Amino acid sequence: MTATLIDGKAFAAGLRTRIGTAVAALKTQGITPGLAVVLVGEDPASEVYIRSKGRMTREVGMNSFEHRLPADTPQADLLALIDRLNADPAVNGILVQLPLPRHMDEAAVINAIDPAKDVDGFHILNVGRLATGQKAMVPCTPLGCLMLLRDQLGSLSGKNALVIGRSNIVGKPMAQLLLRDSATVTVAHSRTANLRDLCRQADIVVAAVGRARFVQGDWIKPGAVVIDVGINRTDDGLVGDVDFVSASQFAGAITPVPGGVGPMTIACLLANTLTATARANGLPDPQGLTP
Ligand SMILES: Nc1nc2c(c(=O)[nH]1)N[C@@H](CN(C=O)c1ccc(C(=O)N[C@@H](CCC(=O)O)C(=O)O)cc1)CN2
């Protein structure tokens, strides 16, 4: 079998076009969504990501506010900036780019963001709302994976889904979203025994383990849908957590790296900013952008 390629780049472009249309309609009502992105320090990958976020925010017609702080910024100064952004009516979404410098308490910083403006969906209130099936802001990468899976499979109900990785950003919210869609979900991680056997039973594999080419082709159940969240910089360039060449021989469909999940992360950030703007203005959630 040779897998169908899931083109996340094209899907994300289509999503951004729909978002742009919705933003244009909001503007006729005098509402312009605004997204504030905060970068502390000079991590080169983060620099690339926030540049792309700024550019794509402007391309869909939203206002982009970029805040760059030096790596040795005291945490109190970052919290003071977040307070100002929370109070600013022109700002509908706030994102603090991760990772933060080591002297900062990531949870304290994230939980200082107004949950209604938490377009990353990392605030403890949004985490709890997602876990209990309430209306939440949903983390961008797993939301993007869910959109790709639904597009590929239609219904996820009754599918065996294996999430490899238990991070707060991807693994845990991904498991919640799959459960919400009535998949039967297993969460595996670096200490899981018999990972290969678990993988061979999965109709859906979401790999977010952070190890280059970790998931081998012969672990994949023939016909399974494989979503690769990994972004690993190696001597061969950027590779995912799945050994793409061998997995393509077994999977029914698979995301590439680059060009798979990554572009969906930024498109879903814009989707969440639009959703936050609609909610702040008492409007219904935009269609097809929330789980
Ligand atoms: N506050 C947040 N911090 C981080 C998040 C997040 O969702 N919120 N996720 C990642 C980084 N990230 C967005 O911030 C991100 C990662 C990758 C991509 C992407 O488009 N990747 C491309 C490849 C780009 C490259 O060459 O590096 C792809 O996969 O095709 C976008 C956003 C950690 N921090």
TrEMBL record:
Tetrahydrofolate dehydrogenase/cyclohydrolase NAD(P)-binding domain residues: 139-279
Role played: Catalyzes the oxidation of 5,10-methylenetetrahydrofolate to 5,10-methenyltetrahydrofolate and then the hydrolysis of 5,10-methenyltetrahydrofolate to 10-formyltetrahydrofolate.
UniProt: NADP(+) binding residues: G165, R166, S167, I231
Designated gene of the protein: folD
Residue span, Tetrahydrofolate dehydrogenase/cyclohydrolase catalytic domain: 6-120
Organism: Paracoccus aerius
Pathway of action: One-carbon metabolism; tetrahydrofolate interconversion
Protein name (database record): Bifunctional protein FolD
Catalytic activity: (6R)-5,10-methenyltetrahydrofolate + H2O = (6R)-10-formyltetrahydrofolate + H(+); (6R)-5,10-methylene-5,6,7,8-tetrahydrofolate + NADP(+) = (6R)-5,10-methenyltetrahydrofolate + NADPH
Subunit structure: Homodimer.
